[in-house]
Amino acid sequence: MRRTLVVRLDSVGDVLLTGPAVAAAAAAGPVDYVASSIGAPAAQLLPGVDRVITFDAPWILDPAPEATEATIAAFVDSIDGGAYSGAAILTSSHQSALPTALLLRLAGVGRIAAVSHDYPGSLLDHRIKGDPDVHEVERSLAVMEQLGFSEDAHPHLRITLEAAEPMGGRVVVHPGAAVPARTLEPSRWARCVESLASHGYDVVVTGSHEEHDVAAMVAEPLNRPPILLARSDLRGLAEVLASAEVVVTGNTGPAHLAAAVGRPVVSVFPPTVPPSRWAPWGVPHVLLGDPLIACAGCRARRCPQPRQWCLDDVTPAAVVAAVARLSAAPAREMVHQ
Fold first, then answer.
1. Could you tell me the CA-to-CA distances from 133 to 90, 159, 278 in Å, in that order?
2. CATH fit for domain 4-146, picks 3.40.640.10, 3.40.50.2000, 3.30.200.20, 1.10.10.10
3. Which mean pLDDT values do the consecutive 10-residue runs of the chain (337 residues) have?
4. 4-146 and 170-326: identical CATH topology
5. Domain ranges of the chain
6. Which of 157, 202, 311, 320 is 20 to 30 A from 111, comparing alpha carbons?
7. Segments in the chain forming alpha helices (H)
8. Nearest to 183 by CA among 275, 93, 272
9. Which residue in 184, 155, 156, 142 sits closest to 256, CA to CA?
10. Chain-centroid distance, C-alpha 249
């Protein structure tokens, strides 16, 4: 059987979006996955992953860990002897696959595929040139095709979680995001939550322990505390998301986790990155935000403007209307916009 190495070195959502690529390789044999310490909990949930290898790459993460001989040597040693038939290095448009490819060569991996802007010399055996303007799921699948794996006709995000029926009228709101520019301010989320509750929805707010203050502020109108989980407890978060008829988030990992458990998503989506590449995959969804604003594609982590103009139209009424479109239990009151 073919043992394949899949590499994605950034965040939870990025790893979840590689699920269909992993499934393509897993149909032919075992898959080992290299992920950052941030993304590793997501890799552990992907069907078909046999082993997760953790590596925090100094050329990917922000803030970047120190590049030391010891950490690089330890990573090479963890790959050496894996007897891989091939390796897929999966990256976004702003990332280079070549540092990873060099280390895989040092570890003896003999067949490597990736997207690369830059001339790879002997570091890649299969190169997709430039920057394909496709969704991240399709980008990853294209790399797998270079290794001879064919995709499912209808690739969906999946995790190793038993399917559960959603609770009628339940809306789960996850307001936090690792990148502040990719979500609403907490006070605006609180108004959206209050409006959803006033329209008859059973609203639950989620967050990590580190997001306690934000989640508590957003949940205050509900007189119900938020559900707080460890950042690494993605299975626990997935179970909460699976209880919803609709999940409401920013452009963040839980949006893709919701898609992986088959739930519709309302995504507050500031166009700091292209929606065509990063929107929820394979589930009904509504994107809120102005994708045509002049500063779209800015990749800002914090908006430098006095206010985030691209989210001006994301009102409580707009959120309620979006949830009503996706929910089997529409709002009990007329929504006025």
1. 15, 26, 11
2. 3.40.50.2000
3. 93 97 95 98 97 97 94 96 94 96 96 96 96 96 95 85 89 96 96 97 97 97 96 96 97 97 97 96 97 94 93 97 88 43
4. yes
5. 4-146, 170-326
6. 157
7. 12-16, 19-26, 40-43, 69-79, 98-106, 136-146, 186-198, 212-219, 234-242, 253-260, 275-278, 316-326
8. 272
9. 156
10. 12
Q: Output DSSP code: residue 96.
A: -
CA distances from residue 253 to 121, 127, 227, 264, 318 in whole angstroms, order as listed: 34, 28, 17, 14, 22
Q: State residue 169's pLDDT score.
A: 94
CA distance 10 to 60: 7
Give pLDDT, residue 19.
Answer: 97
User: How many angstroms separate the CA atoms of 47 and 31, rounded?
Assistant: 10
Q: In whole angstroms, give the CA distance from residue 104 to residue 159.
A: 27
The C-alpha atoms of residue 176 and residue 229 are separated, in whole angstroms, by 12
Best CA proximity match to 283, nearest among 256, 305, 257, 263: 263
Residue 216, burial from CB neighbour count under 10 angstroms (0-12, 13-18, 19+): middle
Phi, psi of 240 (to 5 degrees): -70, -45
Q: What is the pLDDT of residue 151?
A: 76
Q: How far is CA 314 from the centre of its chain?
A: 22
Integer Cα distance of 131 and 117 in angstroms = 7
Strand, helix or coil for residue 40: helix
CATH architecture of the domain formed by 170-326: 3-Layer(aba) Sandwich (3.40)
Tell me 330's DSSP state. -
Nearest to 266 by CA among 239, 291, 248, 253: 248
Indicate the angle between helix axes 19-26 and 136-146, nearest 10 degrees: 30
Sheet holding 126-129, edge to edge: 49-54, 31-35, 4-8, 86-89, 112-116, 126-129
